[in-house]
Amino acid sequence: MATAAQPVPLNRRLVTKYLMFGLACLLLCLATSLALAYRNSLIPLAGIAVTGPIVILLIGAAVLYQSTRLNSLIEQQLHHVSQATSLNHAEIRCLTGSDPVSQGWNAILDRISHQQVWTNLEERLSEAVKDLKQEWVVRTFQQLPTPIAVTEDSFQIAFANQAFEALAQGLGTTQVVGHSLLDVLQCQSAANADEITDKLTRQNGNGSFEVHRGPTIHDGVLQISRHPLVDKATDARQEIWTVRDITQQLLADALRNQFVLTATHELRTPLGNIKAYAETLALEEGIDVDQQKEFCNIINAEATRLSRFVDELLNISQMESGSLNLKRHETDLMRLLEEVMDHVAPEMKSKEITLDAHLPPKLTRMCLDKDKFTSALVNLLGNATKYTPTGGRVSFTVEQTLENLAIYVEDSGVGISQDEVPHIFEKFFRSADNRVREVSGNGLGLAFTQEVVRLHGGKIDVHSELDKGTRFTVTLPC
Amino acid sequence: MDNMSKHILVAEDNRVMAQLLAFSLERAGFVVTCTYDGATAAEAARQELFDLVITDYQMPHMSGEELCEAIRTDSMNCEVPIVLCSAKGLEIDSTRMNEVHSLAKVFHKPFSPGEVVAFACSLLEFTPVHG
């Protein structure tokens, strides 16, 4: 923009007008004087009439010039301000002088200067905060435990957080930017490149797919989710990928499904048996009395089996909700142990299993929840019986000191593999061993036993060897 | 009706139910061989001729479907009628099972032993001794 011409300073304009006015007055006086001089009557007066006004005019002009000088300077500064794009670019100078106008002008300049300083500071602070926020966002993104990556064309990774880079360790690098998402997923997957490419390209828009690390769920399963991103300004398309380890969720689902199947079987089997035997007794004629009694006993046994299973379910439900409470009373320990052995005796007899019981001659009474502790020990002895082949041996040993009660249940059964031992106290867990699967069970007994022992202030340990047998040790404080 | 001795093979891992089935069938006059798992039943089918096989679906060692396949391909009982007993709600493709193994009947548990006896009598044209 062309700068406008510098205006004539105020004082000069005023002086010019003043002088022009004065000149006009002087000319009038001169004309008058010449007229009088022509008549030869006022020659001396004419000289004074001309020189006097001239002198007065000149003095007046000087005073006018001086008195308007400050205003003129201020006008010049204001002109600079109007021409400049900002106050920073305007050449504004302070005025010398101690008069009120100069002081006022200088005060204005001072305040403007301070304001500029604050404005600059505010701008700098704002920039700094913006940088800090951006840095905070980036730092937070990096620290997120969920692996996240952003890809551009052809699944090239443009950005990834640390968790995502950890997934790429199989690539031999932690810098995944520039690599293909396909490469990162392939090093986490048992599938081949074609299968993963198919999964990646099949998705449109938001979606997810699974990547299996191995042949079984236990090897690990990742859920890969895709979220398209479009930059409205540039129309560039990117995609955000998040990775979630869903192994535990799938294992929990599998366990739950297994439990439902088992529970259904455990409920349906005795119910079906009861129905079939009751119907036979009701509809068939000519069944002899001994046979009828046997059928009634079977119905009774199946009903008891059903009832016991329902109790186990209730116990587990209470465990889950944390409401499994003990009702502890002074208990005759010897009588409790005999009750436990009586409970499993029929099954042991049917399988011709020998019970080696080693009990001290005397046992001190203890404060126990008799029903729950009996159930817990029946679970242990019952399992020992179930998983020991016909003709095997089970030992039941009890030792009591002043401090502790120790109970050992040992069998010569199928044993438990070392990788399954850590899981046997988990609810619904059942061994994958076919020999265990053949035997009916719901995976709840040991979980319940462990919880009862824990609530009594004790602990339970297991030692097992596959094909040799298993030993459970229960220790309670006296 | 042909009332010569008819031999039925029962494969059922639920011993309580297996014993009742055997009781009901024997009471009707059939000769019953009772097994408690698929593998034992397959071995029995290789050794002996049967007029009817009644098998559970879910069994240890060998399932009911695997038993059907074994009987149809590797036993002297390849033409024997087979009755399958399955738990209601279990995902079994009955149509496929029928086509592949030519099942005579599918019973869903809980079923009545009387129904099984009645079906066996009808299929084998057998007059029951009792009932």
Write up this protein:
The complex is a heterodimer of chains A (478) and B (131). Chain A is α+β, with helices and mostly antiparallel strands. Chain A is built from 13 helices and twelve strands. Chain A has helices spanning 10-38, 43-67, 69-83, 100-143, 162-167, 181-186, 193-202, 247-283, 289-321, 333-350, 370-386, 434-437, 445-455; strands spanning 148-151, 157-160, 207-212, 221-230, 237-245, 329-331, 354-358, 366-368, 393-400, 404-411, 459-465, 469-477. By secondary structure, chain B is an alpha/beta fold. Chain B is 41% helix and 21% strand. Chain B has helices at 15-28, 38-47, 64-74, 94-101, 113-123, and strands at 7-11, 31-35, 52-56, 82-87, 103-109. In chain B, strands 2-1-3-4-5 form a five-stranded parallel beta sheet, sandwiched between helices. Chain B starts with 6 loop residues before the first strand and ends in an 8-residue tail after the last helix. The interface between A and B is medium-sized, with 22 and 22 residues.
SSE layout and pairing:
The complex is a heterodimer of chains A (478) and B (131).
Chain A: H1 10-38, H2 43-67, H3 69-83, H4 100-143, E1 148-151, E2 157-160, H5 162-167, H6 181-186, H7 193-202, E3 207-212, E4 221-230, E5 237-245, H8 247-283, H9 289-321, E6 329-331, H10 333-350, E7 354-358, E8 366-368, H11 370-386, E9 393-400, E10 404-411, H12 434-437, H13 445-455, E11 459-465, E12 469-477
Parallel strand pairs in A: 7-9
Antiparallel strand pairs in A: 1-2, 1-5, 3-4, 4-5, 6-8, 9-10, 10-12, 11-12
Chain B: E1 7-11, H1 15-28, E2 31-35, H2 38-47, E3 52-56, H3 64-74, E4 82-87, H4 94-101, E5 103-109, H5 113-123
Parallel strand pairs in B: 1-2, 1-3, 3-4, 4-5
Helix pairs in contact in B: 1-5, 2-3
Q: What features would you highlight for this structure?
A:
heterodimer; A: 478 residues; alpha+beta; 5-stranded antiparallel β-sheet; 5-stranded mixed β-sheet; 13 helices; 53% helix; 16% strand; rod-shaped; B: 131 residues; alpha/beta; 5-stranded parallel β-sheet; 5 helices; 5 strands; 41% helix; globular
